[in-house]
Design goal:
8 strands; four-stranded antiparallel β-sheet; about 20% helix; alpha+beta; two-stranded antiparallel ribbon; about 120 residues
């Protein structure tokens, strides 16, 4: 396991996009490089030493160009794991959300990152 980090939740839980009215189907933002970016996270040494594991859940606001414009950490087991995730947020890229007319719009997406120590 790369750098003793097991990524248990490689799928994204989508909170939803700001969709407009119309007959079409709205689409949520989709990550383009999630696996690559998350696999590069280094497990903080202090967390290894203390045996700290758990999930960091961050909600990202994605602009109409697919860039992260804001983030909010919903939950995390310790600040060191939160900070490890925070470092990689600028590297994440997305396809933007689309409203029911097919126009790119700002959207929200929740990204879980699970940290688990290996033996």
């Amino acid at each position: 396991m790369k750098k003793q980090l097991l990524i248990l939740a490689m799928s994204l839980f989508v909170l939803g996009a700001y969709a407009g009215n119309g007959d079409g189907k709205a689409e949520n933002p989709k990550a383009l490089n999630y696996k690559e970016v998350i696999s590069d996270i280094e497990y903080p040494q202090v967390c290894k030493e203390k045996g700290i594991e758990g999930q960091v859940l961050v909600t990202l606001k994605i602009d109409q160009f697919g860039k992260v414009i804001n983030h909010r950490f919903e939950s995390y087991p310790c600040t060191d794991l939160r900070d490890a995730v925070k470092k990689v947020l600028p590297s994440l890229t997305f396809t933007p959300a689309k409203n029911s007319n097919g126009e790119a719009v700002v959207g929200l997406i929740a990204v879980p990152v699970n940290f688990k120590l290996t033996i």
